[in-house]
Amino acid sequence: MAMLFGIFMSVLTCLCWGSTSVMMRGIRRLGAFEVSFLRAAGGLACGSVLFFAFHGGPAAITASDALVFILMVLCNNVIGDVFLLFAVQRLGVARGAAIASSYPVIVSIASHFVFGSPFTGATAAGTLTAFAGTALLCRREGGNAAPFKLSGVGYAAAASCFWAAGLLFNKALIARGISPLFVTFGRGMTFFTISLFLWFFEKELASRGAWRIFLTRESLFAFAAGFCSLGFGAYFFSSALAYVQPAVATTIGASNPIAATIAAMFIYKEKPTAHQWAGIFLAVLGSALVTL
């Protein structure tokens, strides 16, 4: 029963993470600093509601716990995202996103050595199959006009490594006995503090009226994306880690392009291509294999 609950939490994670790209599709005027700040605010708002509504436990943590929180946020939400941006600039969206999406492979292998998680043939096959499916879902029609650059591959691989490290730090907090509710709340507080600092010194000091960008309609979409992915998504993922191995939770959660593709079918009336249907099949198959 615990295994089924963990899988269910992983599926909910996939849905929440997949909603982000749909919500942020119409954002044009906001820059990276504004989007990060608004997503962090949304994640903190959701995390606070969950923590205080469901009594997430004592708010006392050690200095080492606080350090892990900071490292988790820096790897997941700051450094990893910056490297993805560099990769996309050099390789294009399709290649950059596909290579960076290899982080479940790293998590599966690293969790075996760090946490002693079993690494079976089904786990390896499922992780690689889901990665192949995600790569197909990230592909775009018409080819990729960006030239192939080794530096872009390096940045994409770095993004994958930092994302994997952040997810392993998340597992470490759960393994220390910290509740998923507090992990979500602590992540929100940490990311909000970091993103506020970055935005203030990059934007507000340069232009005193920079805060007015937050009054636009687009800000609501960025806030909602954070509320869903960094709030509910972070909570569901942390909850999954309490019941299933990191390889299972990460592989299923990382299949979120499935949710984004299906949502785009109904919201934006997009028609998935043959390779996207193949990607959905492989991602679902891989997610099923890792649970065996």
| N→C terminal distance | 14 Å
Question: What's the number of structural domains?
Answer: 1
Helices and strands, in N-to-C order?
HHHHHHHHHHHH
Shape: globular
Bin the strand percentage: under 5%
Total number of β-strand segments?
A: 0
Describe the structure.
There is one protein chain. With 292 residues, this protein is mainly α. It has one domain. The chain is built from twelve helices and no strands. The radius of gyration is 18 Å and the shape is globular. Helix 4 (93-100) packs parallel to helix 7 (150-175). Helices cover 76% and strands 0% of the residues.
List keywords for this structure.
mainly alpha, globular, 292 residues, single chain
Quick summary of this structure?
The protein is built from 12 helices and no strands. It is mainly α and 292 residues long.
Question: Helix and strand layout, with pairings?
Answer:
Blueprint: H1 2-23, H2 32-53, H3 63-91, H4 93-100, H5 103-114, H6 121-138, H7 150-175, H8 180-204, H9 217-241, H10 246-253, H11 257-267, H12 274-289
Helix pairs in contact: 1-9, 1-10, 1-11, 2-8, 2-9, 3-4, 3-7, 3-8, 4-6, 4-7, 5-7, 5-10, 6-10, 6-12, 8-9
